[in-house]
Design goal:
By secondary structure, the chain is mostly helical. Helices cover 89% and strands 0% of the residues. Keywords: Membrane, Transmembrane, Transmembrane helix.
């Protein structure tokens, strides 16, 4: 259960960092 939560949190973090990086690149 904890592993699922951690993997989900890390996936969301990757999505956030990727989208923010795209925001700064295409700004």
């Amino acid at each position: 259960m904890l592993g699922v939560v951690l993997s989900y949190a890390s996936m969301n973090l990757n999505v956030i960092t990727f989208s923010s990086a795209n925001y700064w690149v295409f700004k």
